[in-house]
Each structure stands twice: as structure tokens, then as C-alpha cells.
């Protein structure tokens, strides 16, 4: 499968966005990192280039980042998802692919984010789909495994809360692997 001409990561100054940026930079994918503030995006880009010398990475604000790549990754907390999509929606064009890595998690009082929130649309990915412009494609999650219709994202999103809880209780880095594909 050929690499896209570039990937934009919205929310790239956060932990998930930085982790994705590092992995894609190591794979040689040109990146455009977005943040609410262009300065924070530029700092995130500099951190990626420091870790992966020679990487093609630039940092701009979210609106500019959403406009330039065929693949746009949304890596913001659930509480910022709707506002962020509304902010960038005019920059998105038909044919772009949005990968929504948002999971509707809530922290217990003083605790870790291990509780899944109910979403009126069914899942965070379905909420995102309802806010995206016509013709913009969306998938939920991070791995390229076709799990069927978008409404199945509510199942995979809830697995995130389960895995966080398991890892906290067992001081582990456990995950789920789909085999046999």
C-alpha cells in the first residue's frame, strides 16, 4: 500500500498525537502537525525532528493542518472533539479521510480515565461523522482492520477503557491483538 503524500495530525501536541507522529516519522511519512496554537504545533514538530532527524514535519494551527493532507488524524480528548471538528470542518474537502482516534472516556474523581461515556450518536466516531462535511470519509480507531460498519466503533471505543483499567490494576502494558487476518 503506498504511503499518503502527507498525514495531518490534529491535536499533535498531546501524548497520542506525539506518539503517532513519532511512529509515522520513523516510517518516512511526511507530517503536518496541528494544534490550537501554531506555536505549540511548531514545538511538537521540533520534538519529532529531534527524535527522528531528517523527518519531514511541520507544525501549524489545526485549521491549516486539516486543509493540506489527504489523511487527517483526530487525536484530541473527547471533550474537545465536537469543538475541534467544527473548527476545522471548513478546511476539509470531499475525498479526505479522517481517522478519529477519539474515545469517550471520563476520569473517576481524582482517578484515571477508565469510564466510558455514553454518546447520543452511539460512539465518538459516529458523533464525528455527524459533524463532518459531506464527502469526507471517516474511520474510527488506529489500526487498519476493517471491523465493519461505523456503529461497531462503540465496541472498540469501550475496549480502551477496559484496557486502561486492566493496565492500571496490573501495572502492565497489555493490549489486544487481532490474529488470523
How would you describe the overall organization of this protein?
By secondary structure, this protein is an alpha/beta fold. The chain is built from six helices and eight strands, in the order βαβαβαβαβββαβα. It has helices at 15-26, 38-51, 62-68, 78-88, 124-131, 153-170; strands at residues 7-10, 31-35, 57-61, 71-74, 97-100, 105-107, 113-116, 137-140. The protein has a six-stranded parallel beta sheet with strand order 3-2-1-4-5-8, sandwiched between helices. A two-stranded antiparallel sheet has the order 6-7. The model has no long low-confidence stretch (mean pLDDT 90).
Gross geometry: globular
CATH topology title: Rossmann fold
Structural class, by secondary structure, is alpha/beta
Mean pLDDT: 90
CATH homologous superfamily title: NAD(P)-binding Rossmann-like Domain
Give the terminus-to-terminus CA distance: 16 Å
What order do the strands of the largest sheet run in, or round the barrel if closed? 3-2-1-4-5-8
User: Number of DSSP strands?
Assistant: 8
Number of helices: 6
Largest sheet: 6 strands, parallel
* Rg from Cα: 16 Å
CATH arch. level architecture: 3-Layer(aba) Sandwich
Amino acid at each position: 500500500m503506498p504511503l499518503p503524500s502527507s498525514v495531518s495530525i490534529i491535536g499533535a501536541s498531546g501524548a497520542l498525537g506525539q506518539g503517532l507522529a513519532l511512529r509515522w516519522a520513523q516510517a518516512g511519512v511526511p507530517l503536518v502537525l496541528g494544534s490550537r496554537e501554531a506555536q505549540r504545533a511548531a514545538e511538537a514538530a521540533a520534538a519529532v525532528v529531534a527524535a527522528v532527524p531528517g523527518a519531514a514535519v511541520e507544525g501549524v494551527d489545526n485549521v491549516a493542518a486539516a486543509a493540506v493532507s489527504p489523511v487527517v488524524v483526530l487525536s484530541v480528548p473527547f471533550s474537545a472533539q465536537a469543538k475541534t471538528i467544527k473548527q476545522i470542518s471548513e478546511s476539509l474537502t470531499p475525498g479526505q479521510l479522517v481517522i478519529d482516534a477519539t474515545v469517550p472516556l471520563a476520569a473517576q474523581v481524582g482517578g484515571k480515565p477508565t469510564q466510558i461515556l455514553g454518546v447520543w450518536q452511539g460512539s465518538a466516531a459516529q458523533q464525528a461523522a455527524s459533524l463532518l462535511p459531506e464527502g469526507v470519509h471517516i474511520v474510527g480507531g488506529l489500526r487498519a482492520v476493517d471491523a465493519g460498519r461505523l456503529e461497531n466503533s462503540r465496541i472498540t471505543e469501550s475496549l480502551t477503557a477496559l484496557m486502561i483499567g486492566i493496565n492500571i490494576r496490573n501495572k502492565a502494558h497489555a493490549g489486544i491483538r487481532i490474529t488470523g487476518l
